[in-house]
Specification:
- This protein is mainly α.
- Helix content is 69%, strand content 1%.
- Helix 5 runs parallel beside helix 8 and helix 15 packs antiparallel against helix 18.
- The termini are far apart.
């Protein structure tokens, strides 16, 4: 697979309108060959195929991870039959390792993409993910092996495929990038809706071993979609920065550090409902109910939330961090209300619908906030560092919840504790308003210029958006 030049993630953002043209309201010429100057085509058969490929990559990877509660019950039963003293925590760790590794390696995936290109990185990710899932089918009763194959290998492959599947969108879309990004990230929601039923039907007919092999076959499709991710030629800016310089600049950004640390701390309980939901429903309701329905509801409204709040966040009058605070507070409160929903399955469905909606809000503004705080050149490293930081709480949280459940034999305390971090985090995020994004050595005469389409034309790695500086929220 031969890569075109210009695959560096630091340069994958769409070509920005010049300051002069932005102020005069000029529009770029439409007869420019985007293959030569790097201008995204914003349409055409190949561009839409790239969007479809990214949609399926996101859907396959996170559809499996978000539907882990169905596999969890099988792994829990196997470990319990083997005499494990902590089957809940050990079975949960298999899935949480997959999620945690995906986030942890995302930063490295961005660097690897810079070196070997979008298609090779995506193909390698699909190969590792499908291989890990396939190998898992031969060691379903060995927790250590599952930690490596399902947890680490699938998560590693997921990270390598996930990062370039989003980065390639900037090569093909500019005007419609926000909408396309919302559609692509909604892929995980669509697959989260369908995957629990696919996995459950497969478990019923083929048992756990062949179910994992079927999932491996599905994951191998990522290698096929990788061939679509041909990068567009881009013209490198004279002010291109070295990767290490961009990373160091991001780490010196106090506002970003506060934001990233608060988010990481808020995610300790984020993955807990995804892991334990089916078992929670089974043990909470004596009457027969569909334990997969709550996860389906989260998937549906999460997809809607990404589209709705993604559109809202595009408004220059909206404070995206405040929007994310609202999402965290709502997720935390709704998670703590889950134990109170055991009296009514309808009430449980209503709560999970709300959780999904605000989950979509939280996800949809992550990238835009990183771009606002760290600028165009620092956004890639900022997102990678953030995801890597979040890997620890996402991995540890479900395991701790399992240990507590084994001790209490109830999901009340684990779910209440899972809702506390995002609730507190929503308040702590106000700290971002007391720190500046501007470094001490920044030229005070350099001011960001906003183009008609809402993009800030600035080459600095620091904040390109003044909506987070001192002023009304």
């Amino acid at each position: 697979m031969v890569e075109d030049s210009g695959t560096n993630l630091l340069n994958q953002k769409p070509h920005l309108i010049s300051s002069k043209n932005a102020l005069n309201g000029a529009t770029p010429k439409k007869d420019v060959d985007f293959e030569e100057d790097g201008t995204p085509p914003d349409g055409g058969a190949r561009a839409w195929l790239v969007m479809v490929g990214s949609f399926f990559c996101n859907g396959i990877l996170f559809g499996v991870i978000n539907s882990y509660s169905v596999l969890y019950t099988e792994f829990h039963k196997i470990l319990e039959d083997k005499g494990s003293t902590n089957p809940s925590g050990e079975a949960a760790l298999v899935g949480s390792l997959a999620m945690g590794t995906t986030f942890l390696v995302s930063a490295v995936a961005g660097v690897l993409t810079d070196f070997i290109g979008l298609r090779r990185t995506t193909f390698l990710g699909g190969l590792i993910a499908s291989s890990g899932m396939f190998l898992s089918s031969f060691c379903v009763d060995n927790k250590i092996a599952l930690y490596i194959t399902f947890g680490v290998m699938y998560g590693l492959g997921g990270a390598l495929a996930y990062t370039p599947s989003l980065a390639v969108l900037g090569h093909y879309f500019n005007k419609y990038l926000g909408v396309v990004n919302g559609i692509v990230t909604a892929g995980s929601s669509v697959f989260t809706i369908a995957m629990p039923y696919v996995i459950a039907a497969s478990l019923k007919r083929f048992k756990i071993e062949w179910t994992l092999r079927i999932l491996a076959l599905i994951a191998s499709l990522i290698m096929v979609f990788a061939f679509l991710f041909k990068p567009v030629r881009t013209t490198k800016s004279k002010k291109d920065m070295k990767l290490t310089d961009a990373f160091l600049s991001v780490c010196k950004n106090k506002k970003y550090l506060v934001w990233a640390i608060v988010i990481a701390g808020s995610l300790f309980g984020y993955f807990v409902p995804y892991v334990y939901m089916q078992d929670f429903v089974k043990k909470s309701f004596s009457t027969p109910v569909d334990g997969k329905l709550p996860v389906l509801c989260i998937g549906i409204t999460s997809g809607l939330g990404r589209l709705i709040f993604g559109y809202i966040a595009d408004s220059p009058k909206v404070n995206r961090i405040l929007l994310q605070q609202m999402a965290f507070f709502s997720i935390g409160v709704l998670t703590m209300l889950l134990p109170a929903a055991t009296a009514s399955f309808g009430w449980l469905i209503a709560i999970t619908l709300g959780m999904g909606l605000f989950d979509g809000c939280f996800i949809s503004v992550l990238g835009p906030i990183a771009f606002d705080i760290c600028g165009k050149d620092g956004a890639t490293q900022a997102i990678g560092f953030l995801l890597g930081t979040c890997s620890i709480p996402l991995t540890v949280g479900p395991y701790v919840a399992g240990v507590i459940y084994e001790h209490e034999k109830s999901y009340t305390i684990p779910l209440i504790l899972a809702g506390i971090p995002p609730t507190i985090g929503s308040v702590l995020m106000f700290l971002t308003r007391f720190v500046s994004t501007k470094p001490s050595n920044q030229d005070p005469t350099e001011q960001p210029l906003k183009t008609p389409n809402g993009i800030y034309n600035k080459t600095s790695t620091e904040s390109t958006d003044d909506r987070y500086e001192d002023g009304p929220v």
